[in-house]
Write a structure and sequence with these properties.
- The protein has 8 helices and 23 strands.
- It has about 425 residues and is an alpha+beta fold.
- The protein starts with 13 loop residues before the first strand and ends in an 8-residue tail after the last strand.
Length: about 425
């Protein structure tokens, strides 16, 4: 449902379903006993998560709506199926039932007294399957990396969830080596180039949201249309054109020069490589300026560091790699493989170094904001934020330093008995407020 342009307060959300099925088959809806629930998504996590505080009074009152449970009858031990459905004040829903069910990861902090209090941590069912030996990635894969991702998730892990993968331009032949599916997908992410970015940028993210599994290019994420326009204002009114007010925020625009030097995110990176085919060593460097693609940036420009010394044109990091030349050449027959064994279908220079820089650059600017509960936002979405500038002028404008386009790196919905908040950790790789 489309998000309404209105200022809805942080009122409570509706937990329409919170059903636990015990390992012994008993089912119980514990929504009345949930006094606090937190739901999490992150572009740095392979699973969505939730934590709930449950209260057990030891009795059951039918039809009175009191928060009472029969937790002892469930005899929870871990791994139980949990169906969870939530609805916010915008009538947006989060549904985890049927094929998208949660599983209990752990039960902790049990406090016994007149009532018992439990904290139940939840994660995706695929986290259990990911650990099974029968679900390991074992075969050889060839072709586009995005096709391999689809195969690993749908055929090996056998997830029924939606798989949203940006098509990759580069090909890669590799062996599964009995690795876990999540590990292999994350391994492939830093070896991927999106369509149209060869020689310019590299780097994908593999994560899960309520919408399914995502294998997304960082540059493509920053080319999305922003999902919400948010503003921080001390007035009780929401200006026209904005979706919601920012209730609280903290901003970190500082750059740790030492960290930037070690990571090479804002400097050149040197590569020293050889290959198993002819054992010829080689060495070269690449510039951080290759990442400065205006169409795939959150801000206006990359930071300039010690410009009087020109150190951003020098290398601060060395990457040592073996080229893929002569290793697992593509082809279905021996003759095809022999013909392609002298070529390298994987450009270590363009991919490995550029993806490392892209990952490190992503966290150049950081922002944390809290808004009224909004279940329509997900990790990887873009939001546009505005803040008042600090000025003595009579007319106060928006801040060009703090404001602008950001990506949601982490998301948390906090649902209590009377309020719902959404907390967003936001990042972007560049500075300056882009016109929306």
């Amino acid at each position: 449902m489309a998000h309404q342009t209105t200022n809805i307060a942080a009122q409570t959300s509706n937990i329409t379903l919170f059903k636990i099925t015990s390992n012994r088959g008993k089912k119980l809806d514990v929504s009345l006993g949930s006094i606090q629930l937190q739901y999490y998504e992150s572009i740095l996590d392979n699973t969505v998560r939730a934590s709930a505080i449950l209260v057990d009074s030891g009795t059951r009152t039918e039809g009175l709506g009191s928060a009472v449970l029969e937790m002892d009858d469930l005899k929870l031990t871990g791994g139980e199926k949990v169906e969870l459905e939530l609805e916010d004040n915008y009538q947006q829903k989060l549904k985890f039932s049927g094929n998208t069910q949660f599983r209990i990861k752990t039960i902790r902090d049990i406090i016994e007294g007149n009532v018992s209090t439990y904290i139940v941590d939840l994660w995706s069912k695929e986290c259990l399957d990911n650990e099974l030996v029968e679900k390991r990635v074992t075969q050889r894969y060839d072709g586009k990396i995005s096709d391999s991702i689809h195969t690993i998730l749908s055929t090996v892990l056998k997830t029924p969830k939606v798989i949203d993968a940006d098509e990759t331009e580069n090909l890669l032949s590799f062996l599964g080596r009995s690795e876990k599916p999540f590990y292999r997908c994350t391994w492939l992410a830093k070896r991927s180039i999106p369509i149209g970015f060869t020689g310019k940028s590299a780097g994908y993210l593999f994560f899960e949201t309520a919408e399914g599994y995502k294998f997304k290019a960082i540059d493509k994420l920053f080319q999305q249309k922003y999902k919400r326009r948010l503003i921080y204002t001390r007035t009780p009114y929401l200006p026209d054109g904005y979706n919601a007010k920012i209730l609280q925020f903290s901003h970190d625009s500082t750059i740790d020069v030492e960290q930037a030097l070690m990571s090479g995110s804002l400097f050149n990176t040197e590569i020293r490589a050889t290959n198993f085919y002819d054992n010829k060593p080689r060495k070269n460097q690449t510039s951080h300026k290759l990442q400065e693609n205006e169409d795939a940036m959150g801000g206006l420009e990359h930071p300039s560091i010690a410009s009087d010394q020109g150190i951003q044109d020098k290398s601060t990091r060395v990457v040592v790699r073996f080229d893929k030349k002569g290793v697992l050449p593509p082809g279905r027959t021996l003759q095809e493989q022999l013909q392609k064994s002298t070529t390298d279908d994987f450009n270590t220079d363009a991919i490995i170094r550029q993806s490392m820089m892209r990952y490190n650059q992503l966290f150049t600017q950081k922002m944390t904001i809290t808004i009224p509960g909004d279940f329509g936002l997900h990790a990887g979405d873009l939001v546009y934020c505005d803040f008042p500038e600090i000025t003595k002028k009579k007319t106060q404008n928006v801040s060009n330093r703090k404001g602008g386009l950001y990506m949601i790196v982490d998301l948390s919905h906090l649902v209590t008995t009377n309020k719902t908040f959404t907390k967003l950790n936001l990042v972007r790789e560049s500075i300056g407020r882009k016109p929306f």
